[in-house]
TrEMBL record:
It comes from Thalassospira alkalitolerans. GO terms for molecular function: DNA binding; sigma factor activity. It holds the Pfam family Sigma70_r4_2. GO terms for biological process: DNA-templated transcription initiation. This is RNA polymerase subunit sigma24. Residues 11-76 form the RNA polymerase sigma-70 region domain. InterPro entries: RNA_pol_sigma-70-like, RNA_pol_sigma-70_dom, RNA_pol_sigma70_r2, RNA_pol_sigma70_r4_t2, RNA_pol_sigma_r2, RNA_pol_sigma_r3/r4-like, WH-like_DNA-bd_sf. Gene3D superfamilies: 1.10.1740.10, Winged helix-like DNA-binding domain superfamily/Winged helix DNA-binding domain. Coiled coil: none annotated. Keywords: Sigma factor, Transcription, Transcription regulation.
Length: 170
């Protein structure tokens, strides 16, 4: 009788199909990569080295659920962070002549943001600072803080929303 394939073999064999499946749900190949990686971690944890019945279906279900969660999260985040926010910041940085009123305005806003960050729980503040100031990717934040990728995303999103509320932005 033949030997059953390991869970790793199943994952490696179907990785491309999993990526295509996640990508079709999310609409982004790079986010699909993150989803498939998270799915493997959950799949591996669930199996704890033992063979699961119908492992392929179970793996695809994990990817499906994570992809839909990711799509919902991206939609929520896009409602919170708009391109107008980045355009405003970019235009402010390109002005070469800065009026005293502009300096005062941005000093006040800077103080509000610093106060808002000080109000956040440490883990949320660190995740935000790593992402926005350090340019860290969500998976890097998750690894550094020893948390899941979805939690890292939620912490950054919560911090952005808190700062926007403190600034009185919609």
């Amino acid at each position: 009788m033949g030997q059953k394939p390991s869970n790793l073999d199943i994952f490696v064999t179907h990785r491309r199909a999993l990526l295509n499946y996640a990508s079709s749900i999310i609409g982004s190949r790079s986010h699909a990569e993150d989803v498939v990686q998270e799915a493997w971690l959950r799949f591996h944890e669930a199996s704890k080295g033992r063979f699961l019945e119908d492992s392929k279906s179970y793996l695809f279900r994990i990817v499906r659920n994570l992809a839909f969660d990711g799509r919902r999260r991206m939609k929520r985040e896009s409602q919170i962070i708009t391109d107008d926010d980045f355009d405003t910041a970019a235009n402010a940085c390109t002005d070469r002549v800065v009026s005293p009123e502009t300096v005062a305005l941005y000093k006040d806003e800077y103080a509000l943001v610093m106060n808002a960050l000080a109000q956040l729980p440490d883990r949320t503040r660190i995740a935000f600072e790593m992402h926005r100031f350090g340019g860290a990717k969500l998976r890097e934040i998750a690894a550094a803080l020893d948390i899941s990728l979805p939690l890292a995303h939620r912490l950054v999103t919560d911090a952005v929303q808190h700062c926007k509320e403190q600034l009185g932005w919609p």
